[in-house]
Predict the structure.
Amino acid sequence: MVEVSKRVKGIEESKIGESLKVLEQEPSIISLGAGEPDFSTPQRIIEATKKFLEKGYTHYAPLEGKVELREALADKLKKENKIDVSPEEVLVTCGSKEAILLTILSLIDPGEKVIIPDPGYLAFRPIVLVANGVPISLHLRQEDGFEINIDELKKLIDPKVKLLIINTPSNPTGAVFKKKTLEEIADVVVENELMVLSDEVYEKLVYEGKHISIGSLNGMKDYVITTQSFSKSYAMCGFRIGYVTGPLKLVEEMKKLKICTTISAPTASQIAAIEALKSEKDVEKMRKEYDRRRKLLIKRLSDFEKMEFVKPKGAFYFFPNISAYGMSSEEFSEFLLEKVKVLILPGNEFGKYGEGFIRISYATAYEKIEEAMDRMEKVLS
Ligand SMILES: Cc1ncc(COP(=O)(O)O)c(C=O)c1O
């Protein structure tokens, strides 16, 4: 076969898929590795989707998404996120991952720089590479509560930087950015004429503080692309449905790319999304249960004297510092898997500044988390 493109060759393969595979072979492993809700999709969403499928809603949807859904999303963005958008400024996508890809492909030319959070969601870097852009790591530090340090951000800016990606509530740290942080970011963005991609997939999973969309801040509408999703808040990962909103001109350009890729988000999933927007009680039930698990982990992880962690305020992850154990993130993860069959993810999977940390997910049943902590106590105390 001929050589594959340099584009795909340049993408390092994540080891996460590999480590999750061991679960199938070894049922006694407790996984605190998942980035996916363990809850089933609320029944009313499934029923509504079934009904529409039976009625024959199996055709393509409009490229930009069904008008009823875009209208409902524009309403939601106005009411909940305080971002003033029209339905034309909303593009429905196959999960928010596609929204991130379309944004970056529409904005970035080869050689242009994109500042990404580090530690941060592991897909940002490869997507920037696919666009032949240059990902630049912005170090998020434990001592800053994993919020963005503005001085650090300013140091990275030069004429090649075009886009800054932020993610609040954050994967893998659980940080929820304060309004003051967002205001300072906004000032830097406006002063340097950048754009911001604000990844808000965990917007509804907040336990302390409040989620604020940077797109709602005064004068920011033209500078911000907001990506959101049904995956995490509504336990709908498999429906592959998300959306993006931003300046109309950019959304129009994204549509040109969308027709080359997925044409439209799945029609049945769009029906499910309309129903999901009426299911806030179900979201609240799940959020409460995540919070119960978060409190359990705060208590249990505090007992490990050598482990330090910032109390997460949102999403469903802890990101403890394990460097005092004298092992690298990968060695520590392998140690736990081998000795007590507990699967967690090494922090370096989330960027070079994630080294010395691990990610613990609490998208797993309360009892399983308790059992995992009992097992870890046996080898870490
Ligand atoms: C921060 C963040 N953004 C985006 C995504 C992609 O989610 P989806 O494409 O299912 O909306 C994820 C998934 O884990 C994530 O953690």
